Amino acid sequence: MKKILSSLIMTILLSSCTVEKEKLTENVGKYVPPNIDDINFKNFVISNKNFDETWTSIIDFVNDSFFKIENLEKDSGSLTLIFGSKEVENFIDCGDFEYTLFFTGEEFKGSYIDYAKSGLLAELEAKMNINIRKIDNESTKISINTNYTFSTQHALGYYDPKLNQTYSFVSGGYQTINVINPISGSIPTRTCKSTNFAENVIFNLIK
Predict the structure, then answer these.
(1) Domain range enclosing 59
(2) How many domains would you assign to the chain?
(3) Distance CA 1, CA 3 (A)
(4) pTM as predicted
(5) What is the pLDDT of residues 143-198, one digit of tens each?
(6) Would you call 60 helix, strand, or coil by DSSP?
(7) Phi, psi (deg, nearest 5) at residue 63
(8) How buried is 183 (Cβ within 10 angstroms: 0-12 exposed, 13-18 middle, 19+ buried)?
């Protein structure tokens, strides 16, 4: 009887150790997407300045900002700006992420963009189209639409080499894509959306 009890206890202990070992040897993570229900972007404003004043104030500001002019046609009121920044988080929001890697003991907790920048080659490219139209001699309508492309590519040594992603969306928009091999515990999709920071910089200038 004692031998049977000893054998049973040993079996239970070994089983417990096996389960615990399986838990400890698994990478774990959690991803929380950005809130897309709060998107409320209006892509135009009306200025109480005339066309020439509005055009001049925008051009003067752009020349001393993070924007670069790609094309401008004053007669048609068209202006195309491009920008991309290492401070990606100013312009887009991709939610929050955390993980623990068992074999290396590496841990991360923060924004998904910081995670991408630390383990991947992350790049933001954006093209902003501005249309400035005269309403009358004392007011002007300014419309803005921006095309965003956020790309992440594998960096040497990264634990998930298949995680190459590209998000494309416009002002006030977002995109959700599937992730190949998502880390255990996290949902299989990732979402990035516009913060409208760049657009509001222009709108606040001319209000």
Answers:
(1) 26-206
(2) 1
(3) 5
(4) 0.80
(5) 999 999 998 876 544 444 455 788 999 999 999 999 877 888 899 999 999 999 99
(6) helix
(7) -65, -15
(8) buried
